[in-house]
Fold:
Amino acid sequence: MLYAEAWARKIQLNMTFDMVREAAQKPHTDPLVTVAIRSDGSVESVTFVRPSGVPELDAAIRRIVQSQAPYPPFPPGLARDYDVVEIRRTWFFDMAVRLY
Structure:
């Protein structure tokens, strides 16, 4: 849980909103996205459980996730038990990128 929260903070605190600003102005559904992170912090996959309905926005989300990689490696206890962690969040856009 702590790793997932740190991952979300990294996405939200970096200047990633510029990557989606234009696409986020189009009518869309708040996308639900699952990101699989390997124990070394690399991205295994980005899967849309519920896409936004705006292909440019979904592509921008993929770019945001990839642009912030690599993420921190798993702490020893997490790495001992898991090779990959899936983090699922709803992405919301107002004046910034917010993950819930």
Notes: The chain has a mean pLDDT of 93. Residues 55-67 form the longest helix (13 residues). The longest strand covers residues 84-93.
